[in-house]
Amino acid sequence: MPAPTLLPEENFMTINKPVALVTGASSGIGEAIAVKLVAAGYKVYGTSRRGVQSDQRPFAMLALDVTEDASVEHAVRELLQLEGRIDLLVNNAGFGLAPAAAEESSIEQAKAVFDTNFMGVVRMTRAVVPHMRRQGSGRIINIGSILGVVAVPYVALYVASKHAVDGYSQALDHELRTHGIRVTVIEPGYTRTSFESNSLEADAKLDLYEDIRVKVTKVVNQAMATAESADVVADVVLKAARAERPKLRYTAGKAAAQLQWMRRFAPAGILDTGIRKAMQLA
C-alpha cells in the first residue's frame, strides 16, 4: 500500500525530521532560531565555542569554534554520525566591535572580525556542502546584517565583514542551485540581545575620536533599548527555511526594512543625509 501523501506543512511533523545545524546558538539570535526550528519540527543541533552544556534547552549542543578548521570538521563529522544528514545550516556565529573609527582597530583585530564573521561562514559551508550535494538537497541560511548593504560609520569592520557575507551568499546560491541547494542571507537591523555588550573595544584607540565614540555609543544604546527581539529574526529564518522558492535576501525587523527601502528607492543624497543625521554626525 503506498504511503499517504503529506501536505507541505505536515512534512515537518514526520518521524524523519529534517536536521538543522545552528552555529552560535548558546544565546541571542542563534538560540532563538534553534528554539523556533525545534517548534517547527526540526531536529536541531546548536553549537558553542564553550562546548556542550547540560541545561534545559530543547535542542542538543555541539562544541564548535568556527575559527578552527579541525573544530568545524569534527563537529560536522559528529553530527553526521548521529543523524546521517544535514538539511539546514544556519551560519549565525559572529561578533562586533564597539563603536570606534576604522583606524582605531589593529590589523590583528580586523583579521579576528573577518575570521569569525566571514571565514567562519566559509569554513562551515565547505564542511557541509559536500554532504548536501550527495543528498541532492539542502538549505544554507547566513545571518548577515542590513549594515552589510547599508553602511554606517564607526562600525566599519563589522560592516565590511557582513558585506562579504552578502556577496559570498549571492555567488554561492548561483553555484549550488543546480545541486538542489539554496542559499539565503538574512539582514536584521538592531536586535535586542547581549550582542552589543559582548562587542570588543577597539584595540588602537586615538584621543581625537573620544568625543565621537561617546556620542555614537549613546546612539547605538538608544537604538538597542527599543530594538525588536531575536524572535523577529528567528521567524524570518523559519520562513526562509520552509519557502518552496526561497529569496536570496530577507530583511528582519521594521528598521531593516526601512533602510532597505531607502537604499532601493531614495536618492543617494537623501540616504547619506539620513544616516549622518541618525548617527548625530556634523
TrEMBL record:
The lineage of its organism: Bacteria, Pseudomonadati, Pseudomonadota, Gammaproteobacteria, Pseudomonadales. PANTHER family: SHORT CHAIN DEHYDROGENASE (PTHR43976), SHORT-CHAIN DEHYDROGENASE_REDUCTASE FAMILY PROTEIN (PTHR43976:SF16). Pfam families: adh_short (PF00106). InterPro entries: NAD(P)-bd_dom_sf, SDR_fam, SDR_oxidoreductase. Keywords: Membrane, Oxidoreductase, Transmembrane, Transmembrane helix. It comes from the Bacteria. CDD domains: 17beta-HSD-like_SDR_c. This is Oxidoreductase.
